[in-house]
Amino acid sequence: MKKLLVTGSSGLIGSQVCTYFAQKGYQIHGIDNNQRAIFFGPQGDTRWNQENLIKMIPGFQHHEIDIRDRPGILNVVKMIRPDVIVHTAAQPSHDKAADIPFDDFDTNAVGTLNMLESARQFAPEAPFIHMSTNKVYGDAPNSIKLKELNTRWDFDDPLYENGIAETFTIDQSKHSLFGASKIASDIMVQEYGRYFNMLTCCLRGGCLTGPNHTGVKLHGFLSYLVKCNLEGQKYTVFGYKGKQVRDNIHSLDVARFMEAFINTPRKGEVYNLGGGKNNTCSILEAFSIVEKFSGKQQVYEYVDNNRQGDHICYYSDLNKIKRHYPAWDITISVEETIREIVNAWKKRI
Predict the structure, then answer these.
(1) Cα(151)–Cα(237) distance, rounded to whole angstroms?
(2) pTM reported for the whole predicted model
(3) Burial class (CB in 10 A: 0-12, 13-18, 19+), 176
(4) Quick check: 326 and 263 in contact, CB under 8 A?
């Protein structure tokens, strides 16, 4: 039986990967120390997801380790010697990173180095999949000519008709400290692929979402928006008239791409993994979709100041990923994704 090691196993993508590959016959090992509850308080707690994994996956083995614990990570990878490593653990918030710069960098950059070097020493043949972020592009996408529509912004340059490609600059822009620490990890994953000939890839995610997301104010756009709607809490829109656009990808489609990469891995690759142009929505449009499924009007306030380094419009150009893996595609629409999130929060609130 092949062994899969997942960091951040109680999070959105990590838990989806665990359940997906358990159904494919893998023995699942998860690394998670509920650091999200430390970063975001009780509302960020993911123990409920850990308990679900233990109940749902026969033989699931949970390892309570912080990825910053270098000896601990080296020991667990040496013990397991996994056939595949999926690294999703991270400090994920733009805004929080500015308050905890050491914790942010140590988690995102140093933690990733710990995982890479452990893999090189004890599982050098294992495909290593790293969840990066589109924030590695900083606010450079904001320099693209835009057009304002009734409910959204959109690119007004034919070069970006399909969105942002992997060749887009990651340099000379404002990223937030989170974006900077994720660039460090992204480049390191590429380097281990190119320098040590390891089977690595960086997935520069758009809006990763789904029903297992524990959305909080500082991270988890759609999930947190739905939670606010159902509880009647006021949601704060930061700038850009609420017309800022994101592409949204369901965690199941992320897991499906990982399977495609594992089956035909490459060395030091980078992919923009989002919902693409057809799976986009603005905040205003998200309000309407959520209201349709919840039956409740969205309560919100508008603040004219945007978040530093935030994108006005971003969606992933999926041409490269589809060229390399033509059998993979988006299978779950943004409307269906939001419907699932609404139903999941109804059960948890």
Answers:
(1) 14
(2) 0.95
(3) buried
(4) no
Q: Distance (Å, rounded) from C-alpha 342 to C-alpha 337?
A: 9
Q: How many CB atoms lie within 10 A of CB 74?
A: 16
Q: What residue spans define the domains of the chain?
A: 3-348
Tell me if 220 sits within 8 A of 44, measured CB to CB. no
Per-residue pLDDT tens over the stretch 177-211: 999 999 999 999 999 999 999 999 999 998 999 99
Assess contact for 274 and 316: CB atoms under 8 A. Answer: yes
Q: Specify which residues 245 forms β-bridges with.
A: 282, 313
3-348 is a CATH 3.10.20.90 domain: no
Measured between alpha carbons, how far is residue 161 from residues 5, 154, 232 in Å? Answer: 37, 9, 37
DSSP annotation string for 128-174: EEEEEEGGGGTTGGGGS-EEE-SS-EEE--GGGTT-B-TTS--SSS-
Distance CA 97, CA 184 (A): 14
How far is residue 11's CA from residue 67's CA, in Å, rounded to a whole number? 14
Alpha helices in the chain (DSSP H): 12-22, 35-40, 47-56, 70-80, 94-99, 101-105, 111-122, 176-195, 221-231, 251-263, 283-294, 319-324, 334-348
Taking alpha carbons only, the member of 37, 30, 88, 38 closest to residue 54 is: 30
Residue by residue, DSSP assigns 322-346 as HHH-TT----S-HHHHHHHHHHHHH
User: Cα angle at 267 between 263 and 271, to 5 degrees?
Assistant: 80
Residue with tokens 């449009």: 285
Under the phi-then-psi rule, with left for phi > 0, alpha for psi from -120 to 50, and beta for the rest, what region is 95? Answer: alpha
Alpha-carbon separation of residue 141 from 64, 314, 346 (angstroms): 38, 7, 36
Find tokens 């988690």 and name the residue: 107
Q: At what angle do helices 12-22 and 251-263 cross, to 10 degrees?
A: 60
pLDDT per residue as tens digits for the range 159-172: 999 999 999 999 99
